[in-house]
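Reopening this one. Same input as before:
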Amino acid sequence: MKNKRYTFLLLVIGSIVVFLFIGYKHLTKNDPFSYPLNVIEAFIVNDSYEIGENINVYVHTESGALATLARLGAQVEEINWHHEIPPTMQSPIFDTKNGFTWDKSFVIKTTDLKPGMYVLSIEPKVEWHPVTVPFIIKPKSVKKVSVIASSNTWQAYNACGGISSYTDFRTPRYLRELYGIVGYDYLKQRYLPWSRPYPFYEDLSDLIFASDTHYSHTARGEWIALAFLEQHGLEYGVYSDHDFAVNKNILQSDLIIFQVHTEYWSEEMRENLKNYLDVGGHAIFLGGDNMTRDVEFYEHGIIINKKPFDRDSIEHLIGSQFSNEGFNTFAPYQVVNPNNWIFDGTEIQNGDLIGEYSSNNNGKQFGASGWETDKHHGINDQSSVLAKGLNDKGGAHMVFTESKNGGWVFSSGSIAFAGAMTNDAVIDKMMMNLISDALKTE
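Same output, byte for byte:
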């Protein structure tokens, strides 16, 4: 009887080993495979371009389509440009590390484009929603204010090709379940190539809530901060996460603003921020879930690393760290430190509420402390909590952190915060106080 039990146990263990080996071979091979394409798909390879650089656009369309272009400024600026695309069938073959290899459909010439963030919209000639592709035109020289788009997050949420930072449709279900049983992290690294379409559609009609659940992670969610800067007549340059990793000239800016969901950071990005703050730089983190996940850049995209990340070191740098409490709830902030100079000119008092409405909301709740939030745990004694979100299960901590040589970091602690910048007078004044201090203007 005992021998039968041992035999059965060996069979079970042997089966698990075989399945794990099969899964390992499945995951490590780079064999291209056929991926189902929609009626229309489109992509460009890079997130940002220099003025004068051509942008190659790759489109798959069964019906033909019309491409138009808009810049996201104080309002939507429609560009006097369009391009007719004939029916074009592209290859469905997807390479897990290199993405799609498609024929070029057309070129956007950037010589006459102003710096900023753009959205390319491509509308098919059949009943189907348009596809939209965000991209950045960088300034010729670094401005006093630089804005870093959350472009790594754009990629992390993109499941085209069957895999993202959050989903995996490529690995067979039985293998995913088996790995879960044995506790094996079968995707310690996820390759996310740039050469693939975004599955997002951006409604550019206005700045209010749209039903598309992904809009806060793409161009539309980041437009709010750009609109704020332009409404105040402030000159700025926009860059991608990759730009911030490789272009040290950005560190010459008097102020660097990080967009609403800057979750995915490489070692180069973290080191650049630390060096910038050490010499008296000023940084504003408009969002929450800041610097939570570790990535690497490779020739064709980004690699999401699943290794544990030291969140305490992030709080030491910027004053707060991600907390899951209060996830996907929304509430106003309550001021707890009204004497900080950031509130100068607001007449705000202790206990007052700010950010009661954010346009970056879930359509049910509307406070500026929401989506995902960060909190202060006392790790950096140079940090001061200015306000706390009143979310039932824990809200955002709005934190101001002094750094070396007169530098500082302001962190809103909330992805929803930026949605209050254009409609809340107190938050408007707070942001202008921060910007004026960084630029040393009145």
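So the earlier flakiness isn't reproducible anymore. For the record, The longest strand covers residues 76-85.
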